User: Fold this.
Amino acid sequence: PLLQHYGLSTTWIDLVDNIWVALWFACHKAHVSGTRSQYLHFERRLANSVDDQFAYILLIAADSAQTGVPGLFKGTNTELVDLRVACPSIFLRPHAQHGVLFRKRGTGVMRPIDYSDQIRGVIRMTLSDALSWLGDAKTLGVHGLFPPPFYDHGYKLLLDGNFQNNNKVGSIFLVGA
Assistant:
């Protein structure tokens, strides 16, 4: 789950448990580029587009219960990892984003790909209202939510690990590059 949070492809889905972080992601578009999709850039959505009037936040349910492993929760149908508890604090991004990862449990090597039965609600708001509520707080900017490797020592370790980027597995994202 930690590697998913930094850009690698896994079966986990990124969730947050903070309304302001959820609102930030609802108000921004992610753009990926590079030969191995290693560059990640976020752009604030524009509220004046006719086709892009709303922001959405999905409310997801997990039936997971605490296991003996800190931050790991397992249930009959779902698994959840709270990265703020499960990972060392040298990884700042999960803490800044209130990072929680979620997936449905499967049988053997197969996992369900339809997660619609886990949705409990949808919050829909006009994008202009959402942008207004969000404001311009520095803590809810790219630098605050995606701390650079100068501050995020765990991120620096991943970047310095000489990981060979791969189109199937993904890349450790270079945010803002």
Q: What stands out?
A: The longest strand covers residues 119-126.
